[in-house]
Structures are given as C-alpha cells and as structure tokens.
Write a structure and sequence with these properties.
The chain is an alpha+beta fold. The chain has 2 domains: about 1-85 and about 225-250, Phosphorylase Kinase, domain 1, CATH 3.30.200.20; about 85-205, D-amino Acid Aminotransferase, Chain A, domain 1 (2-Layer Sandwich), CATH 3.30.470. About 30% of the residues lie in helices and about 35% in strands. Strands 8, 9, 10, 11, 12, 13 and 14 form a 7-stranded antiparallel β-sheet that branches. Strand 6 and strand 7 form a beta hairpin. Helix 1 runs parallel beside helix 6. The chain is globular.
Length: about 250
C-alpha cells in the first residue's frame, strides 16, 4: 500500500508518507541498517518491526508522564501515525557512561561512568558527518532559540531519568541515547516536542549483569545477533511476544 501514498521524506531507517489528515504523517520503519554515516549498510529482516513496537511502547509511556511527542498510534507492524512537525536540525545526545565517540574524543575507558549525565548537540548533516556543535553555534545559525534549547535539554534529562529506570527494572543499563525534536505550531506560537524514534537503533543498551551490547553497536562492530539482541530488549520490556513468528514469516 505504501507505494500509492505520497512520500514526503526517506531517511536511512524510516520513510515518511503523507498522513490521512492534515498535520499528520505515516512513519514507516525499514529493515535497513546503516553505520558510519551510511558507509556500512545491510538489510536486517524484522528490524523495522521491532523498532516500531519498541518506539511505540516508549513514546506512549513518555506521553503518559507528560513528555509530549509526535506519536499518535501504531497502524500495523511497520507503520505508525505521527504528528507532522518541523524538525529541528539537531541530534540531542544524552550520555551516562563513556562509550562511542566521547570515549575516543576524551580518552575515556569504555564503560566508565561519567561524573554526571552529559548532553551534547550534533548538527544533522550526513555530508558533514553530523558535527558536534555548541549552544553558541545553535543560536548563531538560528537552528533553535535559547528557550528551545532549554526546553530540549530539560526534556532530554526527563527522558533520561525515565528510560534509565524503565531499562534498569528489566536488567538493562542505559549507556546513552540520541533523540530529535520538532516544532508544532499553534497560531503564531510554536512549541518543541519529541520526534523521530527511541529504539535500540538510537540507544546504547547493555545487559546490566554482563555488559553485553543489546543495540546497534552489534551491527557497527560486527558482533552478530543484531535482531536477536533487539528482540531481547523487546522481550524484557514485555512487548513483541509474537516476534519470532514475525521474523520467520518474513514480513516485508
């Protein structure tokens, strides 16, 4: 059915289609996996289905604690209805434990707890490799206003607190995660809400007992069992009980 709809945007892991009513879009989760700004690519059958469900689960719970986001409802295995937003061209990263680029940049040992949760901003541009930017850059180039930066940081820390507890309760450590924000307009005013997705594609999740990676680093580092690890996250959260059938059935 997706081919008959007007495609609005296609990213590395998702496609956005025109929604059924004004102010809505349909977000379709692909099985494509990419790393290192799409230099490394693969198709992992079933990944889109799992990420759709995990993101639905998390966004619904965030909505229930007052963290407004673009999620409206899940439509089927791969699609969800979302609010149309004007995306702020920033990736907001919250880090609790040293891993990935911060370990490399600052010479930290992977797995070393950070003195406190650290928020970083990256400018969304694949051609530039999503460079890290400061609040000074953000306001100078008018990517976001000071109040919007404050709102994004406050929301990011709330999301971090909530997700840390959610994952900790099922034996998973939230190492870090990336979120994106968008503006919704009401008359002359706009407000910032959470957008995009929250899934093992956008979080680093380690088994609390063994530090085994249960996220996209399995793909980045050729560790194998990517889908199995994503499925394990869903299983621990109590969703996707039907997942094995979905994968064997080869949903496309």
């Amino acid at each position: 059915m997706t081919t008959r709809r007007k495609k609005i945007y296609e990213g590395k892991a998702k496609i956005l289609y025109e929604g059924p009513e004004p102010g809505t879009l349909i977000q379709y989760f692909k099985d494509d996996a990419t790393a290192f700004n799409a230099q490394k690519k693969a198709v992992l059958e079933g990944k889109g289905v799992i990420n759709n469900r995990i993101s639905e689960y998390i966004m619904t719970r965030l909505n229930s604690i007052g963290v407004q986001n673009h999620f409206i409802r899940r439509l089927n295995l791969r699609e969800q209805l979302i609010k149309e937003v004007e995306i702020v061209p920033l990736e907001v990263v919250v880090r609790n434990i040293a891993a990935g680029s911060i370990a490399t940049r600052l010479g930290l040992t992977e797995g070393q707890p950070l003195p406190r949760s650290i928020i970083e901003f990256y400018y969304k541009d694949d051609k530039l490799g999503d460079p890290m930017v400061s609040e000074e850059h953000i306001t100078a180039f008018n990517w976001a206003a000071t109040q919007e930066i404050d709102d994004m940081m406050a929301t990011a820390l709330r999301v971090n607190d909530y997700l840390s507890g959610l994952f900790s309760a099922v034996g998973i450590t939230l190492v870090d995660f990336k979120i994106e924000f968008g503006r919704v307009y009401e008359g002359d005013f706009s407000r910032i809400i959470l957008a995009d997705e929250i899934s093992p594609d956008s979080c680093r999740l380690w088994d609390a007992a063994t530090n085994e990676k249960l996220d996209k680093d399995r793909f980045r580092r050729d560790l194998g069992n990517v889908i199995e690890s994503y499925t394990e996250v869903a299983r621990r959260l109590g969703i996707m009980k039907e997942m094995p059938t979905v994968i064997q059935g080869g949903v496309h």
